[in-house]
Amino acid sequence: MKKTLLSFLATALLSALSFGQQKISFEPSEGYTLGTVVGQKEWTVKTDNVPNNNFKVVTGKASDGNNSVEVTSTGNYTENFSFLFKKIPEYNRLSVSADVKLEKLNSSDYYMLSLYYNNNGNYSWAGGFNFMYSGKLYADSDVNFLDLGNWTPEKWYNLRIEIDHVTEKNVKYYLDGQLVHTSTLGPKVVRANDLNFEFDNDGSGFVVDNIIIKDMDQLSVSDISKTQINIFPNPTSNFINIKSNEIIKSVKLYNASGSLIKTENANLSKIDISTFPKGNYLISIETDSGIETKKIIKE
After folding, report:
1. Residue 147 forms part of a structural domain
2. Is-contact 270 261, C-beta < 8 A?
3. Are residues 185 and 207 in the same domain?
4. Same domain for 207 and 233?
5. What pLDDT digit, counting tens, does each position of 168-214 carry?
6. 36: domain range?
7. Is 270's pLDDT higher than 60?
8. Last residue of a domain, one of 221, 247, 279
């Protein structure tokens, strides 16, 4: 499954994390500026022929806030993938998520949210999401892979990988908030410490935003067990009621093609969808414990 991969050692650790979690949405408030992301906040690249300026912080193409990183292709395919990456902490129990949007089919292959153990330049692959040029999507690693169906271009996907290095020694894959695969952790992956977004530069690029890195051991048992979000009625025709035992930080509504169509940034208990066409939608609800995505139906 995996193409030949080369990666590169990032030279610095993440800035200090608060409460075992860091969110990266490439906003000015986080210290990011428009233009190449290479060199900002320890982001770097490994590539044969894609200039640094093709890895840009841009505005107006975000899933969260205003900014995101857009990676564009020069169209010069290379067997060795190009990597946008940074070093991450070596947590015993790690959760990493990101929103990604791929440009088009029948062009580049992508490995999104790809996690490695970098042991002094020797890389062991923990896993990632393989968006193939043909339209197939896989949860993939050196241990095994699972067919997740087909992916849609220009659609936002929320990807999450959880790795337990100590107790369960497994890798869990979540697609749009739903657990879709659980795999054994490769024996050489002592601690995942390298986060990559990869493509083969074959005529199409991607956008990445809303990266969340968590130390799951910092989440108390009570936080995990008591976090409950309910939405009702579902199906509905006018309003969705939201009930949560935590403060809601934001609510985002996406249509069936993955486009963000509504954002609410304050604690609320109801969202109006009466003006939207009938069909299927995804509602993404962010609390202090993370992001939960649910499917809703508008009648």
Report:
1. yes
2. no
3. yes
4. no
5. 999 999 999 899 999 999 999 999 999 999 999 999 999 999 999 99
6. 21-221
7. yes
8. 221
What is the CATH classification number for the domain harbouring 45? 2.60.120.200
Q: What is the arithmetic mean of pLDDT over 281-299?
A: 81
> What pLDDT does 130 receive?
98
208 found inside a domain:
yes
CA angle 89, 93, 97 (to 5 degrees): 70
pLDDT at res. 227: 57
Does 113 map to a domain? yes
Q: Where is the domain boundary, 170, 195, 221?
A: 221
Cβ atoms within 10 A of the Cβ of 134, count?
A: 11
Instruction: Take residue 94 and report the two structure tokens written for it.
Output: 């790690």
Length reported for the chain: 299
Place of tokens 């300026």: 53
Has residue 15 got a pLDDT over 50?
Answer: no
Query: From residue 93, how far is each of 134, 187, 212, 288 by CA, in Å?
Result: 33, 16, 14, 18
The set of long-range contacts for 131-137, using a CB threshold of 8 Å and a minimum separation of 24, is: 131/102, 133/105, 133/106, 133/107, 133/108, 133/109, 133/202, 134/105, 134/106, 135/105
Residue type at position 66: N
Domain count, the chain: 2
